[in-house]
Amino acid sequence: MTLWDPLLVDWLQWMHRSAPHLALRTAVAAPADLLEQVADGVLDLAVIYAPQQRPGLKIELLIEDRPVLVTSARRASVPRAADYVFVDWGTEFAAQHHLAFPQLANAATTAGFGPLGLAFILEAGGAGYFRASAVRKHLAAGRLRVVADAPVFLHPAYAVYAEAADAKIITPALTGLGHVAAAEAPAPPRKRKASASR
Fold first, then answer.
1. Which residues contact 163 (CB under 8 A, 6 or more apart)?
2. What is the pTM of this model?
């Protein structure tokens, strides 16, 4: 569900502008339910983290998400468990997270939906891992700060669709997803200009 903020919202807008001939019906559900609906032909395409391979389905890497640790505290350091919001990004993320931060295993707050955890931190203060695109404007406004040198956990998202899917539907959908995923990716570091002293 966290992918909806803002990746899939941007995709819906892109589809509305670029493929207005296609009717859109969206669903937010657990990954296993979405895979089942794609396999049954109820959904044409699903966007999920860590999909399980199933016969008859194609899986394409969409975006290599890298949630970032941000805090509302003036001093951007690894938070205490009492100030931490653990966002449930799934079992793979949880395993990596608990290895890196055993002291945060008993976080004061857990959120199963990233935007909810982010809204809580913005209102009450605290820290947590969130999608970089979701916190970008809050970082720019100075409401949040990135915790430097915090571990980075890769969390790739995939597009899943049936091998026999209608290309007239899947092609524009994948094109749109690729477009918004590329726009969301962080910009490469800018090269510093060499300066010469006289």
1. 56, 57, 58
2. 0.74
User: Are 142 and 162 a contacting pair, CB within 8 Å?
Assistant: no
Q: Under CATH, which number does the domain 68-146 receive?
A: 3.40.190.10
Q: What is the pLDDT of residue 5?
A: 66
User: String of b and e for 55-66 (b: at least 16 CB within 10 Å)?
Assistant: eebbbeebbebe
Mean local confidence (pLDDT), 163-176: 95
| 26-35 contacts at long range (C-beta below 8 A, 24 or more positions apart) | 28/1, 28/4, 31/90, 34/160, 35/160
The label of the residue with tokens 């919001």 reads 85
Angle CA 84–76–124, to nearest 5: 45
By the 8 A CB rule, do 67 and 130 touch? yes
Q: What is the CATH number of domain 2-64+156-184?
A: 3.40.190.10
Report the distance separating Cα 67 and Cα 132, nearest Å.
Answer: 6
Mark out the alpha helices in 19-59 (DSSP H runs).
Answer: 31-39
Q: How many CB atoms lie within 10 A of CB 51?
A: 20
- To the nearest 10°, the Cα dihedral for 15, 19, 24, 27? -30
